[in-house]
Design brief:
Blueprint lengths: L10 E7 L4 H9 L4 E8 L11 E5 L5 H8 L4 E4 L9 H22 L3 E7 L12 E2 L9 H20 L2 E7 L9 H6 L3 H13 L5 E6 L8 E2 L18 H5 L9 H4 L15
The protein binds 1,4-dihydronicotinamide adenine dinucleotide and D-galactaro-1,5-lactone.
């Protein structure tokens, strides 16, 4: 992260939702240089504040009044909270669809002008792995979860056009300590590259609503980020160092969704509630 160390701390108070989650725990540490105060929020329990640079505020994103309070006094929002896998629609609705609406409404009412939205590759998960796409490709959501992220991106676009609130929607591939399977050799996003992308998204001028794919500098990328080149995102990591251990895993069948679709197994999740 040496290339993104700020000369001055750019923000007074940043809000991070989803702070108890896998990525939230990482970002709690890595966003620290960029803000005097990091307000951390989740519906689940979070570790106590470690000093005056942290504020802890439990909040259910589906509660409009609580989200309104949560957003008061922040300069920008890093919105990572919500259901992060495929679930029945009703579970996705409150946390992801209403939740993201509440974030934008609160941003509008409190005058917050920049949001980073944790979108997902599942917005375009029905593209095949032999197709290369950029941010102008039509959406092909692969799940209720992917639909909720697609809607979140549309919400971001609307709130920019209508109210001038700028958003960078990061279509995150697979952000984990290591790629866990062959598909993730293409979709992997290291934590340092994720942090760089968030920093660029928060500080680049005039982003309007920008969609950017969140992947490291992997050998076999399916995503072209040239349309978002003005963000200055330049990934430093690659999945190549994990290739031998990943390719030692048994080879899935050629027609296995994890080998065919960009969204992998999400394309065949559900249906729910037939019984
Ligand atoms: P996670 O599931 O570990 O974290 C999500 C957090 O959101 C959890 O701590 C959960 O308690 C919280 N949450 C759920 N419902 C809530 C509600 N109603 N109100 C408030 N908080 C609520 O997921 P992870 O991996 O940390 O992902 C973070 C974000 O990034 C999610 O929005 C996810 O969809 C997105 N993302 C993550 C990817 C990854 O590879 N880790 C890939 C693509 C997108
Ligand atoms: C996501 O959107 C999920 O939040 C994460 O848990 C992974 O499944 C990731 O996509 C992926 O596609 O690998």
């Amino acid at each position: 992260m040496t290339n993104t160390t700020p000369a001055q701390t750019p923000f007074n108070r940043l809000l991070l939702t989803g702070a108890a989650g896998g990525l939230g725990k990482v970002l709690r540490e890595t966003l620290r240089p960029y803000t005097h105060i990091l307000r951390l929020s989740d519906i689940s329990e979070m570790a106590p504040a470690t000093g005056s640079h942290e504020e802890i505020q439990t909040c259910d994103l589906s509660d409009k009044a609580a989200v309104h309070q949560l957003v008061e006094g922040v300069d920008a929002i890093v919105h990572f909270g919500g259901v992060s896998v495929e679930r029945p629609f009703e579970e996705i609705l409150g946390a992801n669809i209403s939740g993201t609406f509440h974030i934008y409404e609160a941003a509008r009412r409190h005058g917050v002008k920049r949001v980073i939205f944790a979108s997902s590759n599942h917005v375009i998960g029905f593209y095949r792995q032999d197709e290369k796409i950029d941010a102008s490709a039509a959406k092909r959501p692969d799940s209720y979860y992917g639909l909720s992220k697609s809607y979140g991106e549309d919400m971001a676009s609307f709130y920019f056009d209508r109210y001038g609130i700028e958003t960078v929607s990061i279509r995150i591939g697979s952000s984990f300590p290591e790629p866990q399977n062959r598909r993730m050799m293409s979709t992997w996003l290291s934590y340092d590259d994720l942090t760089q992308l968030i920093y660029r998204g928060l500080t680049a001028p005039n982003v309007g609503h920008t969609v950017v794919y969140g992947a490291s500098d992997n050998r076999d990328l399916w995503w072209d980020n040239r349309l978002a080149s003005y963000l200055g995102y330049s990934p430093k990591d690659t999945s190549e160092g994990f290739r031998a251990q990943v390719e030692a895993q048994p080879m899935p069948a050629a027609n296995d969704p994890t080998m065919v679709y960009q969204g992998g197994a999400f394309v065949e999740a559900g249906p729910f509630g037939d019984d």
